[in-house]
Amino acid sequence: MKKIEHIGIAVRDLAKANDLFARLLGREHYKIEEVASEGVRTSFFELGESKIELLAASSDDSPIAKFLAKRGEGIHHIAFAVEDIWAEMKRLEAEGFRPLQEEPREGADGKLVAFFHPKTAGGVLVEICQDKPLE
Ligand code: ZN
Q: What residues have CB less than 8 Å from 97, skipping those under 6 apart?
């Protein structure tokens, strides 16, 4: 793991949360991106080496909608930047962390991402991510 790439925060209303976090962080978000396959709209704030990723549901049956219904707003996941996501997936699986997918998939912000189950990671939904290799 290289660094904390971002912290993901589940929010009900992306516009309101953008305003709140702009006031908190003293800067505006720099982009909004919809990841249709995940049923999520994301907004990103840059903060030094790391980012804050706000996540709002774009469909009622998306994982974020379910999370909000069950747990309410708040920290949803921590994302770690890695050098080689395939190697890191293998390493974490061998260490007993349960992946939520078999292969890395395309996430927001030009990344390949993979998630690990919070039950195997101290209650924390863990994301690992790397920049998409150039085609
Ligand atoms: Zn994330």
A: 116, 117, 120, 121, 126
Determine the distance separating the centroid of ligand 1 and the alpha carbon of 6, expressed in angstroms. Answer: 6
Local confidence pLDDT in tens for the 135 residues of the chain? 999 999 999 999 999 999 999 999 999 999 999 988 889 999 999 999 999 999 999 999 999 999 999 999 999 999 999 999 999 999 999 999 999 999 999 888 889 999 999 999 999 999 999 998 776
Please report, as a single letter, which amino acid is at residue 70. K
Q: pTM, whole model, 2 decimals?
A: 0.93
Distance of CA 45 from the midpoint of ligand 1 (Å): 12
Distance CA 132, CA 120 (A): 26
- In degrees, rounded to 5, the angle at the alpha carbon of residue 88 between the alpha carbons of residues 82 and 89 is 125
What element of type H or E holds 12?
A: none
